Amino acid sequence: MFGLSNPQRFMAFTGPLAPVLWAAAGVLLAVGAWLSFSVPADYQQGDTVRIMFVHVPAAVWGLGAYGALGVSSFFALVFRHALADAAARAAALPGAALTGLALVTGSLWGQPMWGTWWVWDARLTSVLVLFLFYLGYMALRASIDDEQKAARAAAVLGLVGLVNLPIVKFSVDWWNTLHQPASFLSPGSSGLDPAYVPAFLTMLAAYGVLFSALWLSAIRTEVRRRRVVTLRARRALEA
């Protein structure tokens, strides 16, 4: 892992890996979508339950993406590692997209189940705060012209946002919330209906591989961008 912290070795290693991840994501999404529409409707929620196969994986990997952003920010801030900073920056947009998708699909699922599009529930509010951290991170980087200063300021914000992750995860346990607790691999829970497990796990894996493909491609793009910036700066100095 630390050997890949060298940008040149990282680019050489991930070059063949990126297409494999994109292909795997496409296959998993296709299979997951087919399974999601093949499962029977829920006896209470009807076909609305199918939103689960989009909403839950998006929420899970929205959290995972911010974890990647936060850990990368730590290495960028403490060790001043350029590739870690590129990884943190690359995780922001996919993570924001996944979290935004979780919020939208959650509202679509909540309206027929709860009778309202939005409530200031602990889980919903903490996920909204997570989304705002993503937007704040990207806005902060864009608002500072000096790239090094922008990277340091954004890294601090990225680390602060890590505090919100356990709040999102355990909000349904710590407070009396409208949002249901975890129904899969949760101690004391009745668990997810076995008919839904293959579709759920496939979509969860599909979103994970898709995020990996997006993140890896974005890091590679960021590395190329920085190389171009550095090359232009050298040519300007030579001129």
From TrEMBL:
Localization in the cell: Cell inner membrane; Membrane
Pfam annotation, one family: Cytochrom_C_asm
InterPro entries given in the database record: Cyt_c_assembly (IPR002541), Cyt_c_biogenesis_CcmC (IPR003557), Cyt_c_biogenesis_CcsA/CcmC (IPR045062)
Record field: transmembrane: 20-39, 59-79, 91-110, 122-140, 152-175, 195-217
Membrane topology: Multi-pass membrane protein
Keywords: Cell inner membrane, Cell membrane, Cytochrome c-type biogenesis, Membrane, Transmembrane, Transmembrane helix, Transport
Domain Cytochrome c assembly protein: 16-179
Family membership noted in the UniProt record: Belongs to the CcmC/CycZ/HelC family.
Role according to the record: Required for the export of heme to the periplasm for the biogenesis of c-type cytochromes.
Name of the protein in question: Heme exporter protein C
Gene designation per UniProt: ccmC
